[in-house]
Amino acid sequence: MRLTLIAIATLALSACNNTEETKADATQYAEPQKVEIGSPKPAPKLTENQQSVRDKKLEMGDIEVTATAESIRAGYKNIHDLTEDKSCDTSEQCKVLAVGSRACGGANEYVVYSTKTTDSAKVEQLAETLTAQEHQYNLTSGMVSICQHLIRPATQCQESQCVKIAGSSTSVY
Q: Full-prediction pTM beyond 0.85?
């Protein structure tokens, strides 16, 4: 029995030591292409949808959308600064708003704010603009993201502050 196992192990190990070059091995080690330093990299081909978004300006009502990474970062900073004061008297003053757009779809995050200290119309308009900008940016730049869809969290007023109810949503941050 031992002799049979030793013979099988020897055959298996000798098969791994095959030094004969196959066609697959030959194509794997093809000559590298010469690339000049500083030569422009060819632009990736855009899908028809991406090209149409790039060719036309995406408009949402009266809002003209021109998305850049900087404008999106500035938009997130603005909305977080605007909703920073979450003081409240009752849970009815606590609101949740979907903000941003992931490449796979859905909101990038949910912002909790208080209607006691924040102008709802201003926050909603800023969120709408930011979502449209991020959506346009994702389309035109070919962005990819994690395809985890966030669940809208519940909020309540605890110790005079609007908070997400623990366990009611997945948080990105």
A: no
